[in-house]
């Protein structure tokens, strides 16, 4: 009786089918599962209703977003259809804190859902977060490698064109954003071919090496040295030669002392990390 009355209250007091073409009965069936008590799940799903959030607690949507990966893990990927609408509602919430919370956990949700559901339901949300406020973008940036490694190769390559957009931030003084980008690019080297690294990641790395903030530059020296190592071990040796020639031209012969100093630091990192045989280094 108690559960029935709860269900009656939820379905009459909150419109769960606002954005759906299903009838109320079909909508109800689409959210039925047998892992947890249905009334408990319905209560959770109802919390994203805007009218309830305004009357109960303005923070409730953020708490729902925080709990969602745990709920998805509990229900299993076979019951994702119960949560999909709620996830999309939260992903488009007006409060950036709600979207930020989801951005920080989207890689975890991708592991739970698997590649097919991720490609169909999470990639569009991920793409939306990439164009969001910096407070939201940092969430996907911090786990960029974790998310992209779960995608198919073709889908992963599509993001090569967007990586340079991370160099642009709402606030240019937000240097930690660029430092995080450099850290992620080091991890991303393993996911892409030598040609893709040379064509798309190299220009970003060189830009970061000339950053105004020394913390960003130091991480970028490591990025370039790892890039040299990856290209040297690839089957196309001409790429690493071209990269080293560009390092000499861009930094060693730079008219600014800071550029020449950058060249010395990159050489130091390449030498310390054994990225090249010494004869090749010489």
Automatic annotation (TrEMBL):
Region feature Disordered, mapped onto this chain: 11-32
GO cellular component terms, semicolon-separated: cytoplasm
Superkingdom field: Eukaryota
Swiss-Prot/TrEMBL keywords: Repeat
Statement: the UniProt record of this protein carries the keyword Membrane: no
Gene3D superfamilies named among the record's database cross-references: Leucine-rich Repeat Variant (1.25.10.10)
Record InterPro entries: ARM-like, ARM-type_fold, PP2A_Regulatory_Subunit_A
Molecular function in Gene Ontology: protein phosphatase regulator activity
PANTHER family membership: SERINE/THREONINE-PROTEIN PHOSPHATASE PP2A 65 KDA REGULATORY SUBUNIT (PTHR10648), SERINE_THREONINE-PROTEIN PHOSPHATASE 4 REGULATORY SUBUNIT 1 (PTHR10648:SF8)
Protein name as catalogued: PP4R1 phosphatase
Organism of origin: Daphoenositta chrysoptera (varied sittella)
